Amino acid sequence: MTKGGMESVELFTTEGKGRGLKAQKEFLPGDVIFAEPAYAAVVFDSLTHVICHTCFKRQERLHRCGQCKFAHYCDRTCQRAAWLNHKNECSAIKRHGKAPSENIRLAARILWKMEREGTGLSEGCLVPIEELQNHVDSFGEEEKKELRADVESFLEFWPPHCQQFGMQLISHIFGVISCNGFTLSDQRGLQAVGVGVFPNLCQANHDCWPNCTVVFNNGNHEAVRSMFHTQMRIELRALSKISPGDELTVSYVDFLSLSEERRAQLKRQYYFDCACEHCKKQLKDDLMLAVKAGESKPSADTVKEVIQLSKDTLEKINKARMEGHYHEVVKLCRDCLKKQEPVLGDTNIYLLRILSIASEVLSYLQMFEEAADYAKRMVDGYLKIYHPNNAQLGMAVMRAGVTHWHAGLIEAGHGLICKAYAILLITHGPSHPITKDLEVMRVQTEMELRMFQQNEFMYYKMREAALKNQKIQVMPEPSNENAPSLFHKKE
């Protein structure tokens, strides 16, 4: 079955897994399989004043809706584009006296769209909203309690003059949001800023080693070449060669966890048992649990002790990061690494997690040489574990490249930036803001490398002067959040 803009994919059903998507033609790495605008989307409660409610870009100055005083937009273009979806919300917020939570706002937007367009298939959708998976029957007591509270708040917010929907459909919509809400990120792709529902994306099944990735594209309202150029959408992109008839899969979780941990997370958040090859055969688990090889191989008790110490340290690090005590974070990382290094292998995930935090925080504190050493070791480990075209890998390699540049290690920095660029060209595409930024860095570091190779002394003199007006920015403050995960799930 194909429909509006979805000619390249086919919807199919299998026993046990339910619906899924298959390729109708061959795709190569980096190809966009389909792009899909949100059926409905909202900005997170905590960011409503700093994120545009239409394109989800972070902006310094936003225009506020003069009526409800709640919605914010980049400019008149975004405000006009939003009006169809904001019109009912605007009057409901004024009547209610305040804006409700993001879940209530998203459910309301979905139901207003159903009121406008009717039930059944919407244009471009393979499956009607009312047939999406909701998993309400699998909810635990706490989730059922939250669902009841959401339905109650929704009924208080929903205007009496609008079409009245049955309790079953309202509960279904909240179930869909809970297990199929997609995380929207800002234009840099580094922070989760909202949640949306994309009915076609929902049909792609999970695999821990997928052949596709999903990137959120904020659109460009200045370009008018086509519908997809003017509005934000998700893009499903091929990570490897895909043949006609192959199932299209995405990963709902980050791969950098043991198969048992990934399966537990998928069961808890998405209510299914992962049966992918990597989970069934526990592929890469040996790398993620690697210990030092050689004559003085550590005992099982020593390994167990160091892994427990690593887990305890990660908890202390999270607490220190939340409080902004970055020098304390560095001390915890250094102490932990001293204990880990004689015992854990270079690809052990507990070692890699500490190296990642240490390199990020030291970069922020501008202690670049030490940060670069840790970043290099982290990337070397990641390259042995991640899929070669994994977006998380690309971002980590990019961070390491910038850290090396700041440390004055121009050859290694340029090499890492080129490697990151090659990955992000496939995962994000050439027009994504982060890929464009990386292209500027690649050109700059290439020019500097040439200068360095011609005259090292002059290069460092010019670099010193240039740093006063540097283009490659100092690292942002370390985030306490992980990179945005694919689907939005309230923990």
Helical segment count = 16
- Coarse shape: globular
The multimeric state of the shown protein is: single chain
Q: Order of helices and strands, N to C?
A: EEEEEEHHHHEEEEHEEHHHHHHHHHHH
Structural class, from secondary structure content?
Answer: mainly alpha
Return Rg in Å.
24 Å
Unreliable stretches: 223-230
Report helical residue fraction: 40-55%
What does it look like?
The structure is a single chain. This protein is mostly helical. It folds into four domains: 1-38 and 198-251, Beta Complex (Beta-clip-like); 49-190, no CATH class; 284-382, Serine Threonine Protein Phosphatase 5, Tetratricopeptide repeat (Alpha Horseshoe); 386-477, Tetratricopeptide repeat domain (Serine Threonine Protein Phosphatase 5, Tetratricopeptide repeat), CATH 1.25.40.10. Helices cover 47% and strands 11% of the residues. It has 16 helices and twelve strands. The chain has a three-stranded antiparallel beta sheet, with no helix packed on it. A three-stranded antiparallel beta sheet has the order 4-8-7. It has a two-stranded antiparallel sheet with strand order 1-2. α1 packs across α2 and α11 (349-364) packs antiparallel against α12 (368-385). Mean pLDDT is 89; it is low at 223-230. It is found in: Cytoplasm; Nucleus. Keywords: Cytoplasm, DNA-binding, Metal-binding, Methyltransferase, Nucleus, Repressor, S-adenosyl-L-methionine, Transcription, Transcription regulation, Transferase, Zinc, Zinc-finger. GO terms for molecular function: DNA binding; histone H3K4 trimethyltransferase activity; zinc ion binding.
